[in-house]
Write a structure and sequence with these properties.
single chain; 525 residues; alpha+beta; Immunoglobulin-like; Serine Threonine Protein Phosphatase 5, Tetratricopeptide repeat; 6-stranded mixed β-sheet; 4-stranded antiparallel β-sheet; 30% helix
């Protein structure tokens, strides 16, 4: 039997360039295999919030801009700065899920349609790789039963072969050069600022909002279709890579290491390009996920409010995904309301209570967060994330000794540590030994002055490294001191860790001496 070593992944450009139809089909099948989902989730009635000049420059209004980076930030971003709306939100009526509630649209009204894009089988940010060079976007199209297109965001020019509408909701990093030109040629050395980065962390969601104006002459039904589309590479980049040449009519433009203001034409020869295809390829647009829902339409004078049935237990996870997307965008009020719907719909779902707490931690309400975390821990006493966020609430109140204490780890995992765990967490184990030797087991007897500033603080809450700080590329591999200070018997354990970027120094615990290290790490393991 011959086993295939085919690795499909997400590159549709290479099989097109080399005319490898079999590989292209494998890639397309992989991309469509539930890696990401789309949910046309909610209809929201209510006026858009207004932002006055007096609030536009407040710290609350600008907090989200202070954490910009050239790549995306994951859920750990909530530890950086709270993001609050700059103006009070209007009272909203939210009807969801759309496919089950099917609310009535009224001619002439303006409504908001909220879609949720959720990563499912993706172990990295979505999309991954050279995220400034892809076309990945959410398309929403609204058509009535008379065949009229009344809304279309994310359309593609030239019957689907050209560039994507510039105002579409893209998932990418859009970088700018020194003169404000988009980085479109993979010229990363010229990047000087970031216009935006929009990627979805693994196991997380992005909530997308569209404003739909219902025409007064629309038919009796409107069908909404949302598609998550993927094209590798972006249209402009593909044209330039194959046939880009300077526009000879454009003279005296600014050009340097930090910027390129020149115009390009896509008329160059493709005779010597790599691959079997000797022309600019029409790279396929793959619809990775799709959702569709049809809603009835009536005259505004013909009826009142739609009869909306109560939420069902099966709706809880969809409300939770909706809330995650809002939370990561910094819409804390809407996120909390969504998570509270989770708790009322499925009160035995501990994660719903934890997510309410996450919002309240960011809002600066540690007491309110602890109240709902207590509910979560009643349901699942071993839920690690509940212990983690509980620690954050204690830290916010300045109760550092309590925040350092992790009953989940200390009470359940101490006796099941493997040799490699001992090597990873010697500081922690020394803390346990000091506690055992202390008569009073007081905080003073188990802690020591904080490590020197060269150490990067991180709190370990699990023996298996399930903490955002454990694999940071900025982390210094510290085992309480240099490798040379430990006994030779433990050198084999120290070496692989010192070569890694992992560290596990507990805040406030003194660095290990060689004797202490030897006492907790079995020699010869």
């Amino acid at each position: 039997m011959v086993h295939s070593h085919r690795f499909a992944a997400a590159n549709t450009a290479l099989p097109v360039a080399f005319k490898d139809d079999e590989q292209l089909q494998a890639v397309v099948d992989f991309l469509k295999a539930g890696q990401v989902t789309v949910d046309l989730f909610a209809l929201v009635r209510g006026e858009e919030p207004t932002f006055s000049e007096s609030t536009a420059g407040t710290p609350e209004a600008t907090a989200g801009r202070q954490i910009a980076s050239t790549f995306a930030v994951g859920e750990e971003a909530e530890m950086v700065a709270p993001v609050r709306p700059a103006a009070p939100l209007a009272v909203e009526e939210i009807v969801a899920p759309l496919d089950q509630r099917r609310p009535t649209l009224f001619r002439g009204e303006s409504v908001r349609i909220d879609a949720v894009v959720r990563t499912r089988n993706v172990g990295h940010f979505f999309p991954g790789g050279t995220v400034d060079a892809f076309d990945t976007w959410l398309e929403l199209k609204a058509e009535d039963n008379q065949g009229k297109t009344i809304f279309w965001s994310g359309s593609v020019e030239d019957n689907g072969k050209g560039p994507v509408e510039p105002g579409a909701h893209f998932y990418r990093s859009l970088l700018l050069d020194g003169n404000g030109n988009p980085i479109t040629k993979r010229n990363a050395w010229a990047a000087r600022s970031v216009l935006y980065v929009r990627l979805i962390p693994p196991g997380a969601a992005n909530t997308v909002r569209f404003r739909l104006q219902v025409p007064v002459n629309s038919g009796s039904e409107i069908t909404l279709t949302a598609k998550l589309n993927y094209r590798k590479f972006a249209w402009w980049n593909t044209q330039w890579a194959y046939a880009g040449e300077r526009d000879p009519s454009h003279q005296d433009f600014a050009l340097g290491p930090h910027y390129d203001d020149g115009r390009w034409l896509f008329t160059g020869s493709t005779a010597n390009v790599s691959g079997a295809l000797k022309e600019i390829p029409n790279l396929p647009i793959v619809t990775m996920a799709e959702a569709k829902v049809s809603l009835p339409v009536m005259d505004a004078e013909a009826g009142g409010a739609s009869l909306i049935p109560p939420d069902e237990a099966d709706d809880a996870l969809r409300w939770n995904d909706y809330g995650i997307g809002l939370l990561l965008q910094g819409d804390l009020r809407a996120a909390e309301n969504a998570f509270l719907r989770v708790t009322t719909t499925s009160p035995d779902y501990a994660d719903g209570w934890v997510n309410v707490a996450r919002v309240r931690v960011q809002e600066g309400d540690p007491e309110g967060a602890r109240q709902v975390l207590d509910k979560a821990l009643e349901l699942e006493p071993d839920l690690a994330k509940a212990h983690y966020f509980y620690g954050l609430t204690l830290k916010a109140d300045g109760r550092y000794d309590e925040a350092r204490h992790d009953p989940l780890f200390e009470g359940r995992y101490e006796d099941s540590l493997r040799p490699q765990d001992l090597a990873m967490f010697p500081d922690y184990l020394v803390r346990l030994k000091r506690r055992e030797k202390s008569v009073a087991a007081s905080a003073e007897s188990v802690t020591a002055p904080a490590p020197p500033s060269r150490f990067i603080d991180a709190t370990v809450s699990s023996p298996f490294g399930a903490h955002a700080g454990l694999n940071s590329p900025r982390a210094t591999p510290v085992l309480g001191g240099p490798a040379s200070s430990a006994s030779a018997a433990n050198a084999s354990l120290i070496a692989p860790i010192a070569r890694s970027t992992t560290r596990a120094t507990i805040i406030g615990v003194a660095p290990l001496s060689a004797d202490e290290y030897a006492s907790v790490v079995p020699s010869g393991e």
